[in-house]
Structure formats: structure tokens, C-alpha cells
Amino acid sequence: MTLFVPGRVNLIGEHTDYNGGLVLPTALNIGVTVSMSPRRDDNIHIVSDAFDTVAQRTIQTEKSGHWSDYVTGAIKLANEKQWLVGGANVALTSTLPFGAGLSSSAAVTVGILKLARDMSGAKVSDTACAIFARRVENEFIGVPCGIMDQMAVALAHPGQALALNTNDLSYQLIDLPKGTRVAVIHSGHQRLLEEGRYAERKAECDAVKHELGHDNICHATPEEMQQILHLPDHIYARASHCVSEEARTTLAIEALRANDMKHLGELLIEGHASIRDDFEITVDATDKLVEDAVGFGAFGARQTGGGFGGCIVALVAEGTYPKWVSDLLAAHPNAYDVLKVPT
Ligand code: GLA
Questions:
Q1: What average pLDDT does the segment 213-238 reach?
Q2: pTM here?
Q3: Does residue 7's CB lie within 6 angstroms of at least one atom of ligand 1?
């Protein structure tokens, strides 16, 4: 069985998915195609066009820091659910750059879990597959990520945004407007969630949750914000970002529905300032790229994803896109257009 799973880029709602907030990712038209067939033994045989080696694992293999861990972890979980009994042959073909912050890992884990579910005939929702895929990342890989990426790639189709409430997993799919390009530009500055700074932000938010006595930082009241004023400035600022980002994301969902790109763009710009100044996850390369993306005429732009480099997302009027992108890339020689179709 074969399944295409898109990558995702987040429009707004950053670092809110493990703090009870809203997120607004969109599915990309590039992604990972996962093919899988079950095996009678415990072996996992993985080929990928992105890597030239063939990986041989078993369902007993532990995490090794290798790209194949995502496949192994998902197959182990599929065995736990009894969707698979034993190993599998897996082939991955990707149009998504790995490690660019566009959820290639979620695409792989969600793809394997959905295929295993479908092969077993289990009546389990796509949302449940996303929850299990997050468990692979949290428990097997050891990245304490939220649920946004897995939900986005499990539920949204290319050309759709997913307005997701991470508190109760209720969601709505919204078609992206025609005439506006969602551009994704890589800064050339690599980011790695495993580097630990993501986990550091998560731990800082845990300190806020501890003080508040609940997990929903995004909905902290003004009184609660008063109560945590004694926390170190940088921790208080993390909470401030969560609260202001929730307000922006609420407005962004309305602006997207109303096809108000000007307002949506302004919210993206404000969102970038918040992750730069309050959540402190941007880098020089992405700050400058965002500034120029807007300077060259985008409705708005911001660093997207886990942070510390990686990609920016920008909203650009379709007609102005060719000049916009060529001006931007000329000013930033290390940057590249992630969604550019190879010629
Ligand atoms: C990464 C994580 C997501 C989310 C974003 C930040 O992409 O995988 O769960 O926390 O960072 O918004």
C-alpha cells in the first residue's frame, strides 16, 4: 500500500501547541510518499531516495540517532496496537527536504501508522493516528514536541489550512485563498529540534504551568499574569508570547476566512516580533530575511516552526511573486525557495 503525506508550514500559532493554544498550519504540495508491505518476520527493511543506504532494523531495535528511527518507532507502535504483527518493508520517496522544519518526520510516522491501520482494517481516526505519531516522537525519538505537525499532515490536504485547537483537538479545514502564494524560504541556517533548545523552551513553559497550576498558558488571565510577575523576566516573557500569540492566531483564522491578506500579513509580522523578543527563538538570518521579505512587498512574513533558524513563511500576492523571490534571494545568497519546482 502507498500513501502520500504532505509536509506542513505553520502560518501562525508558534510554540502554542504544547501550551493549550491554537495553531494554523497549512499542508504543502510537497511531501513524503510512503509504501509499505508487512513481513512475516520481525525485520524492518527501509529504502529511501533521500539517503543512499538501505536500513535493516527489527521491531526490537532501539533508537540509534539514525533517520530510520522514525520508521522503526512507528512500526513498533503499530505492533503495540496490533495493526502489524512483525516487521515491514518500507520505501520512502520524498519531495520534502529532510530537516528543514517542514515536518518530514511527522509525514513519515503518520504515513506508516495510517498505512498500518488501513492494512489491518482497524477503525481508528486520523486524529488518533496523529496522537500515536506524536507518541513516537515524544517517547521513542525523545523530542518533546506538541501535536501540531502530526495533526496537520494527518488531516490537511495541500491548499488547506488547519485551524486547530490543541486543547481539545477540535479543528476546521480552511481553503487557502487563490491569488496569494504561501512562500517558504529556507534561511540557510540549519535547525535541529534535538539540539535541546526546543526542550529548553518546553521546560521554561513547564515552570509557568507549575506556577499557574494548569497547563493552558495560552489562556492565562490578566490576574494570573500578575501572579507570575515574580518569575524571572525571560520565563514571564515566554508566557506573554503564549497569551499574545493566542490572540493573534484567533484573529488570523478570521482574516484567513475573510481573505483579508493585509490583516493576516500584519499578524504574521507581529508574530515574528513576539518569537524574536519574548520567546527568543529567532536568529539573525531569519530576522533579516523576514525584514526583507516584507520590505520587498510580502503582506507579511515570520520565522516558522520550532525555531533557531530553518524557514520563514511569507504571504505574497501571486503576480508579484517572481520579482519578490528573485529580489529576496539576491539579497540573501544562503537562502533558497523550498517550494520551487526543480527545473
Ligand atoms: C516544532 C514541533 C511542533 C511545534 C513547533 C513550534 O515544529 O514539532 O510541535 O511545537 O515546533 O510551534
A1: 98
A2: 0.96
A3: no
